UniProtKB/TrEMBL annotation:
<dbReference type="Pfam" id="PF00278">
    <property type="entry name" value="Orn_DAP_Arg_deC"/>
</dbReference>
<keyword id="KW-0456">Lyase</keyword>
<feature type="modified residue" description="N6-(pyridoxal phosphate)lysine">
    <location>
        <position position="53"/>
    </location>
</feature>
<dbReference type="InterPro" id="IPR009006">
    <property type="entry name" value="Ala_racemase/Decarboxylase_C"/>
</dbReference>
<dbReference type="InterPro" id="IPR029066">
    <property type="entry name" value="PLP-binding_barrel"/>
</dbReference>
<dbReference type="GO" id="GO:0009089">
    <property type="term" value="P:lysine biosynthetic process via diaminopimelate"/>
</dbReference>
<keyword id="KW-0663">Pyridoxal phosphate</keyword>
<dbReference type="InterPro" id="IPR000183">
    <property type="entry name" value="Orn/DAP/Arg_de-COase"/>
</dbReference>
<dbReference type="InterPro" id="IPR022653">
    <property type="entry name" value="De-COase2_pyr-phos_BS"/>
</dbReference>
<keyword id="KW-0028">Amino-acid biosynthesis</keyword>
<protein>
    <recommendedName>
        <fullName>Diaminopimelate decarboxylase</fullName>
        <ecNumber>4.1.1.20</ecNumber>
    </recommendedName>
</protein>
<feature type="domain" description="Orn/DAP/Arg decarboxylase 2 N-terminal">
    <location>
        <begin position="35"/>
        <end position="276"/>
    </location>
</feature>
<dbReference type="InterPro" id="IPR022644">
    <property type="entry name" value="De-COase2_N"/>
</dbReference>
<dbReference type="Pfam" id="PF02784">
    <property type="entry name" value="Orn_Arg_deC_N"/>
</dbReference>
<feature type="domain" description="Orn/DAP/Arg decarboxylase 2 C-terminal">
    <location>
        <begin position="23"/>
        <end position="366"/>
    </location>
</feature>
<dbReference type="InterPro" id="IPR022643">
    <property type="entry name" value="De-COase2_C"/>
</dbReference>
<comment type="similarity">
    <text>Belongs to the Orn/Lys/Arg decarboxylase class-II family.</text>
</comment>
Amino acid sequence: MTDFLVTNKMKKKDFIQHRTPFYSYDLKLLKETLEEAKSAAKKYDYHIHYALKANSNDRILKIIHEKEFGADCVSGNEVKKALEIGFPSSKIAFAGVGKSDEEILIGLANDIFAFNCESIEEIDVINQLAKGQNKMARIALRLNPNVDANTHKYITTGLEENKFGINSWELNNLIDRLPSWANIELTGLHFHIGSQITSMTPFKNLCIRVNEFNTWFRERNIHIQHLNLGGGLGIDYHEPEKNPIPDFELFFGVFNQFLQPFSHQEIHFELGRSLVGNCGSLNSRVLYIKKGIKTNFAILDAGMTELLRPAIYQAYHFIENVTSKSENKEFYDVVGPICESSDCFGKKIELKETKRGDYIKIHSTGAYGEVMSSKYNLREQNPVFYIE
Ligand SMILES: Cc1ncc(COP(=O)(O)O)c(C=O)c1O
Ligand SMILES: N[C@@H](CCCC[NH3+])C(=O)O
């Protein structure tokens, strides 16, 4: 998205002046969220790496960098972007189940904090490439803890059936090979069980498994310097105005209570959604109201090309008609203009009586919104508003 606009206060007239659809970001809320996360983590000396995949908009990244978070990247381009914004390479972790040789070389050239490795073959390749560059590569092993995150199946990552992480039965083989990897330094263990997790129970279960793995390595005289517990903390998509900031105290408190690190070990997290999710909104206009057999369709000028989450995870976002003056409420299937039946933001959504031209705000789109947008149907690039 190319065209960047800045406004001090989003007023109705601003909506009306500007072409929809567009994303807007509440930078004040972003800063408050970052501050809360930071102070909750500081209590236990925990380190937070921001997961760039959630939102890699430059202005958002600059603020996160200013607040001294580290970066969690999943592609060579994300590593480059983090460096360009100013994140120090000593705070950049590079994860991902399929890193290409070119991407690994970017990480090596910049001496990043760690490669989070997901297979024995990947470690082999990193070792060879590091040897070629005469470098030592620091790695963390992404282990599959087989813990159910109880979230949508497409955003669960920590079960043995998922493609992510090294399974426990491979560990004996892996540590047998460790001495042969002369250009690898094993520094950490990494875990990530999934995203949009709203119950603390999966995190408690994760801690129990991490303690077991950590002990297993210690018993084999392998000294692990950092434990990376991943991200996954969810946000309140249903009542984002009531609960704009997730309960970071509760989240980190669970790890403080159940995780048993050895004394020298650093504890890292890679949070995405919980830091940026609620500061973003997608703003759009109703193009048409159409009577279906069982329902009314409110057809918006925003579609799955701007916000993919409802189409691929049946994700719920709170949708609000911000300009209707009507006292009446009606149910609508809120859909987009894209040539796909799954281009639907929600079925049976209760809105104030809605007509052509009304402005519709789709809340909590700061994470996995703008970054997942596409040009499908040759859609226009949209402007972005930043609200201080
Ligand atoms: C390995 C890894 N780390 C961190 C994250 C960030 O997760 P979240 O946005 O749920 O905090 C993800 C995304 O699920 C991930 O796959
Ligand atoms: N993109 C997903 C989450 C995936 C997180 C990355 N592993 C979402 O919108 O909820």
